[in-house]
Structures are given as structure tokens and as C-alpha cells.
Amino acid sequence: MRDASSSLDAWLARLEAAHPVGIDLGLDRVAEVARRMGLLDRPIARRVITVAGTNGKGSTVAMLEALAREHGATTATYTSPHLLRYNERLRLDGREADDAVLVAGFEAVEAARLDAEPVSLTYFEAGTLGALHAIRACAPDLAILEVGLGGRLDAVNVLDADVAVVTTIARDHAAYLGDDLEGIGREKAGIMRPGRPAVLGSDRLPASVAATAEALGAPVFALNAAFFRESHPAGWTWRGRDARGSALTLTDLPDPGLPLDNAASALQALALADQALDPAACRRALDGVRLPGRMQWRGQWCLDVGHNPHAAEYLARRLAERPCRGRTIALLGMLADKDAEGVIRALAPVVEAWLPVSLEGDRARSAEALAGILGDRNLAVVHRASSPAAGAAWLATHLDPEDRVLVCGSFFTVAGVLAAWAEEAQTGADEASGEGAR
């Protein structure tokens, strides 16, 4: 039996305190530990698909997983960050990894890190290596890896991708990636490998992305050039190509409730990973895929982790397509290093009232600061709250039946509301159980 110091919570606390900075881009340290762990000796899966981009990574990964599993493939996915539980980051055959699997990965990383000259790793780097250790033990048909930040210097990029996917490019994480879109594009395109296909999931990517692929000799499959998606009243149609260049067409596909550009990219990436696409399996996968925190509806509430202007523009379009008879109220919480002005500007056409909330941590932005930005634009602020949970609790007693709420601005905002709801549900279950026992 493991002692308390080897629990998952203890390991996560240890990793958070182990490295002097939370983000320390570069592959030298990660590659050295990966080499010691034997992760570079042989492929961890039959095929590896790596997904980078500013927005749309999580939805692309989720649809890739759903599509592969409906075709009978074994899968492993690694994503970040998580909403409620660290276990969300690693999924093996469609299920969250249990604590024992994650702890075993951390122990393997720690042993390799301390072998010979000790190597310092960030929380994300250690988590990535631990996940790769677990994936290698399963040896799935398909490993789907989401880049955490950037691409070229991200820990995920320690492995060579068989297929690289770049979803979108926009300004975000400026402190690490800068504000130049061409430079950001080059960083994201750093996941590409010579001679291996690259899927470009937007027709508005900076020229640097395709230029990087060309310089590497990586075959390019670009949206609206090599593959296409066409919407129509009965659903949508995808047209693309397989790894041998043969034309493929899938018709009458259901709307997955996630960006169709990402769905089209997932189909193209899977086809390039040598998976024959069965129309019925693709329809089942897209009809059943769900991703918490991405256009997630719960009654009157819509939760989305979008936290930059590009993501906010998508949210505004989706809400405009689904008008309501009452007010749309935005429960907005954002970190201080995010473009709050741009997000508010994008959402303003579809939001009638705003409820800014404070977030915690060293990058926190207060509800008062957000209210100031909203006030400068003469936008209606109905309340200010000390946390996402407090904001949700206030709104729950002030909504009309025809109103709706958009919870957005940060993973922390969505996570705070989901955690509060989960606690309420558990309290209700405990009370019901207690009443039944009496």
C-alpha cells in the first residue's frame, strides 16, 4: 500500500513547488529525462498525432479520440489544462487515468530525473513525461497529444508526430510567444517533421506555417485546399484525401456542437494516420462527442473556456445562431495577462448584461478591474462577485426563465462554476442519503 506521500495530491503539490517558474520553454531538459526513461527508444504508439494551435486544440483532440474509438482503435489522449481533476489530462481508451497510473508515471519521471546529474522539470514537463510513460505501457493504436503552449519548445514536442495538426493562430500567451503572428505561426509549426503530413485547420493561418512545412518537406493538407467541409440543411459534407492521395467524401455528417473546421481537420488527420474512414462510424462519433467546457449547455447555462478574442468571436457567432427571448448575461472571469478588452468587444453584440467575477492566483484579475473595462464601454454590469461560484450563486436567484448565461473568460472561471455545481449535487445526495437512513 502506498503511503500518503505517494498520493496523487501529494505528487502534484510536490511538482508545483519543485521548479522555480511555472513555464520554462525548451526541450533540452525534457529530452534528457525522456532519454533516460527510454521514451525515445521506440514509438509509444502505432501512430502519434500532435495538435497545436491557439484555439480548437481540445475539440480537435476530442473528436479525433471519438472517431478513432468508433473505428475500433485503441487510443490514448493527453491534454491540458484540466477543469476539475488532474486525471482528465490523460485518457486511456476513452477513460480518465486512475491515480495509480499517474503516480507510477511521476515515480518513473522522478527516478530518471535524479539519475546521474539531477534535472529540474516544471509541473507541466513532469506531467507530460509521466503521461508518455503511461501511454507507452499501453502501446495504443493512436496517441493524440495536445501541445500545452507554443509548439516547437513545448514538452509534448519531445516526440516526433506522424501527423501534425495546426488548428488556428491568434495572439495569446504574448509573454512567451510574442505578438507577431508570423512568429507565433513558426512556433506552432515546430511540431512538424520532415516528410510527415501536416494538417492546417484554418485557411487564415500566417504564411510562416506553410513555409515551415515546405522547408521541412512535410506534405501539406490545408483546409479549403486539400480538404473541405460544406454545410447544408441536412448536416455537412467532408471531402479530403487519404495517405495515398485518394479522394474521400463523407456526407450527412451530424453537427458535433464543436467547430466544424476542427471536425474536418480531425477527419483529415485520422485519414492520414492510415485509418480507413467508415461513414457510419464517423457519424456515430461526431454525434456522440462531448467536451466539458466547450459550448457546454446545462439548461439556461452555456460554459466555454474561451479566453481570447478569437475564441470569443466564435462564441458570439454560435450564440447569435441560437437566439433567446430573454437576456444573455455573461459571467466573465479573466486572468490579468489576457486581452479582456478584445474578448468583451467580441461578445458585446450578443450580451445584454455582465457579471464580472474575481479569479485567484498570481495572474488574477479582479471583478472590479473587469467592471472598469465594461464601464468604459457603457456596458451594463448587474453585479460583481468575489469568485465564479459566488457569481453563479447570485445569478441562480436573479434569472428569468427566458434568460441565458454564458460562463467564459478562463478555464478557472468554468472550473469554478462546475466545481460549485458538483459540490451542490454531492451535498444534495448526502442529504438525501441521510434522510433515507433515518
TrEMBL record:
Protein's recorded name: Dihydrofolate synthase/folylpolyglutamate synthase
One of the record's GO molecular function terms: metal ion binding
Gene label: folC
Occurrences of domain Mur ligase C-terminal (ranges): 293-411
EC number: 6.3.2.12, 6.3.2.17
GO terms under cellular component: cytoplasm
Mur ligase central domain span: 51-193
A Gene Ontology biological process term: folic acid biosynthetic process
Similarity remark: Belongs to the folylpolyglutamate synthase family.
Function field: Functions in two distinct reactions of the de novo folate biosynthetic pathway. Catalyzes the addition of a glutamate residue to dihydropteroate (7,8-dihydropteroate or H2Pte) to form dihydrofolate (7,8-dihydrofolate monoglutamate or H2Pte-Glu). Also catalyzes successive additions of L-glutamate to tetrahydrofolate or 10-formyltetrahydrofolate or 5,10-methylenetetrahydrofolate, leading to folylpolyglutamate derivatives.
Keywords: ATP-binding, Folate biosynthesis, Ligase, Magnesium, Metal-binding, Nucleotide-binding
Reactions catalysed according to its record: 10-formyltetrahydrofolyl-(gamma-L-Glu)(n) + L-glutamate + ATP = 10-formyltetrahydrofolyl-(gamma-L-Glu)(n+1) + ADP + phosphate + H(+); (6R)-5,10-methylenetetrahydrofolyl-(gamma-L-Glu)(n) + L-glutamate + ATP = (6R)-5,10-methylenetetrahydrofolyl-(gamma-L-Glu)(n+1) + ADP + phosphate + H(+); (6S)-5,6,7,8-tetrahydrofolyl-(gamma-L-Glu)(n) + L-glutamate + ATP = (6S)-5,6,7,8-tetrahydrofolyl-(gamma-L-Glu)(n+1) + ADP + phosphate + H(+); 7,8-dihydropteroate + L-glutamate + ATP = 7,8-dihydrofolate + ADP + phosphate + H(+)
Organism: Halomonas beimenensis
Pathway in which this enzyme or protein is active: Cofactor biosynthesis; tetrahydrofolate biosynthesis; 7,8-dihydrofolate from 2-amino-4-hydroxy-6-hydroxymethyl-7,8-dihydropteridine diphosphate and 4-aminobenzoate: step 2/2; Cofactor biosynthesis; tetrahydrofolylpolyglutamate biosynthesis
